[in-house]
Amino acid sequence: MNPAEFANIAKAEETLWWYRGMKRILFRLLDPLARERKFSRVLEGGCGTGYLSKVLAERYGWRLYPVDLGWEGLSYGRGMGIPRLAQADISRLPFVDGAFDLAISMDVLVHFPLGSEMEALRELVRTLAPKGIFAIRVSALDVLRSRHSMFAGEKQRFTRARLVRSVEESGVEVLRCTYANSLLLPVSLLKFRVWEPLMNRPAASGVEPVAGWLDAALHFPLAVEAAWIGAGMELPLGQSLILIGRKR
């Protein structure tokens, strides 16, 4: 990822509507798993600043092992006092086979060139114990590439079919896979495919604060989606894809 984006993320990931909403959706998928079984060791592959690992450890009591290739992001995690941070490439993880009960990777695969994401997937699965749980989120649909995508260094986006196929080929049984950030899809299409081409401005980060009323208005659709997904239902299209699987 573009190293310059870490500073933007560090300022926004606790309070910005997108981060709050997507965490809410993720929790609705992880909560049932946390009730059913104990996860003693949890890997976050591509942890960025490490903030999500901190939140997961506080919410579930898990022992997190956050790794990221970018020292720029890890430096924020060290400032927050997050333990066990490590600098590592998720396609070459410094852990033995079967080291973890759960592996999580949020919005990381999209930064691999098309095709090379399979190395990272197989490596994440290698570190999972048999029947370990795999949770991944990626950006969806090429038509939604934006100025922010280019700034962040995004190299690919996924469809549900391709993500499921890739994960299954890596040795994971898919339990759930749903699109998310779906209700705002018409707004995003208008912005990315009409407004941004008209303005023709250079790539720039989309991670920036907005007015309080707008933040609340943008968060509301994600809260609705969290309830929908938490009730066991899925969304047919959206700006992100979230997959939960189990190692075979």
What does this protein look like?
- This protein has a seven-stranded mixed beta sheet, with helices on both faces.
- The protein has a single domain, classed as Vaccinia Virus protein VP39 (Rossmann fold).
- Helix 2 packs parallel to helix 9.
- The chain contains nine helices and seven strands.
- By secondary structure, it is an alpha/beta fold.
The major β-sheet equals:
7 strands, mixed
Q: Might you state the CATH topology name?
A: Rossmann fold
- What level of helicity do the residues show? 40-55%
* Succession of helices and strands: HHEHEHEEHEHHEHHE
CATH C-level class: Alpha Beta
| Radius of gyration, in angstroms, nearest whole number | 17 Å
**Which class best fits the helix and strand makeup?**
alpha/beta
User: Under the CATH scheme, which architecture would be assigned?
Assistant: 3-Layer(aba) Sandwich
| DSSP E strands, number | 7
Choose one word for the global shape. Answer: globular
List low-pLDDT spans: none
| Strand order across the largest sheet | 3-2-1-4-5-7-6
Number of helices: 9
Mean pLDDT, as a whole number? 97
Short descriptors:
248 residues, alpha/beta, Rossmann fold, 7-stranded mixed sheet, globular
SSE order and pairing:
Elements: H1 5-12, H2 17-36, E1 41-45, H3 51-60, E2 63-68, H4 71-79, E3 86-87, E4 100-106, H5 117-126, E5 128-139, H6 147-152, H7 160-169, E6 172-180, H8 185-199, H9 212-230, E7 240-247
Helix pairs in contact: 2-9
